[in-house]
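User: Quick sanity check before I run a bigger batch. Here is a single chain. Can you write out its predicted 3D structure?
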Amino acid sequence: MHARHVVLACALLAVAACANTANKPAPAAPPAPAAARDDSLYRALGAQAGIEKVVDAALVEIHNDPHIDLFFANTDMPDLRRLLVEQFCAATGGPCEYTGRSMEEAHGGLNLTDEDFDRFVADLVRAFDKAAVPKDLQQQLLALFGPMRPQIVGQ
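Assistant: Done. Predicted structure follows.
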């Protein structure tokens, strides 16, 4: 769910037309600047402290949902927290890099259903409400993570 938000700019290389440089490789173009990261959602959530508050609230809701909590029975919870903070931070434009496995790898073998995914989303929404995340920011967060459904369900 991962840093994956850096846009690479294309650079055009000029090729020298002179006969005396035809056998020399063209000089490399200077590296293109990375696109500016939009960190407005990260900042609106309260930066790192806000992300951690949201993740902590989500973990409480997950733990309190026996249907969803069973999927985390053998999970290293401090590591899960760290990875969720990274994932939320990176996805919202913060300075973090997600270092976890892909969603397919992380959920492989669990055979999660659409119902499981929807229950998890409901837990997240309750957590967002308890963490006092405004509804417009909740919608932005859900829009970031909603497209992960195919990477999670049925794996």
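The radius of gyration is 21 Å.

User: Great, the batch can go ahead then.
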